[in-house]
Design goal:
Strand content: under 5%
Distance between the termini: 104 Å
Radius of gyration: 26 Å
Order of helices and strands: HHHHHHEEHHHH
CATH architecture of the largest domain: Orthogonal Bundle
Strand order of the largest sheet: 1-2
Helix content: over 70%
CATH superfamily of the largest domain: Tetracycline Repressor, domain 2
Oligomer: single chain
């Protein structure tokens, strides 16, 4: 068989092959970093558009224009406005989870742990009203809509992960799993109601402060389920008040 000279190729050494592989991996890392940066840029633009027009009032074209992209380019990163919303909500829930995990109490004091964890998630939404907006977006009348069932379920599971420490604290205070789940649901519902009143300005009708009302509610829970801790806390407050 005839072999043309220009068909001959030198066989790279092991060192040259390793270097070629390293360069390929570096290029892939740079491409991935660039993609992540652009994706984050799109999400930042979406936050601004959602803040101005609301999630329902926003459109892919407006988000693309705010990001400096064409609508077609945006679809390289997200296939719909709902997908952008889901990504923003997932980030929000990650930050919520971090706040709750950072809240601490002395070991063996579940009542104080309940207070710390509850104040953590409530405080997060007090100081980040846009995150609360994201959480309420899917409520359309009395029915959720906008996301696929699987994605909606995944996001709800992430929210429940952030609320789980409160439920665990209830159990450690002696409640059965069913009772702990009920009290945790009531706690969340109470907190969300207060947050909604605060962020819509309706709390002013009552001349009250949402944070003080929530703290009072949690204190009443401690009094119901751990009277000893509640009594010690009152004595400590009285001591410092003297």
């Amino acid at each position: 068989m005839d072999v043309q000279i220009d068909e001959l190729r030198p066989v790279p050494s092991a060192a040259e092959q390793a270097e070629a592989q390293r360069q390929l991996e570096l290029r892939q890392q740079r491409q991935l970093a660039m993609s992540d940066t652009r994706r984050a840029h799109v999400l930042d633009a979406a936050r601004r558009v959602f803040a101005e027009r609301g999630v329902e009032g926003a459109s892919i074209r407006e988000i693309a224009r705010e990001a400096g992209y064409t609508a077609g380019a945006l679809y390289s990163y997200f296939d719909s406005k709902e997908a952008i919303y889901a990504a923003l909500l997932a980030e929000s829930l990650d930050r919520l989870q971090a706040e709750v995990l950072a809240a601490r109490a002395a070991k063996g004091q579940p009542a104080r742990l309940l207070v710390a964890k509850a104040q953590a998630w409530f405080g997060f939404y007090v100081h980040h009203p846009r995150d609360l907006d994201l959480g309420f977006y899917l409520v359309n009348g009395l029915a959720p809509g906008g996301l696929t069932q699987s994605l909606d379920r995944a996001l709800n599971e992430r929210l429940m992960e952030a609320l789980q420490p409160c439920e665990q604290a209830f159990e450690e205070m002696g409640l059965s799993p069913d009772a702990a789940a009920r009290e945790n649901a009531a706690l969340f519902a109470h907190g969300m109601g207060l947050l909604l009143l605060q962020h819509t300005g309706r709390i002013k009708l009552f001349g009250q402060a949402a944070e003080a009302l929530f703290a009072q509610y949690v204190e009443r829970l401690v009094e119901r389920f751990d009277p000893a801790t509640a009594s010690a806390a009152r004595k400590q407050r009285d001591l410092f008040a003297e």
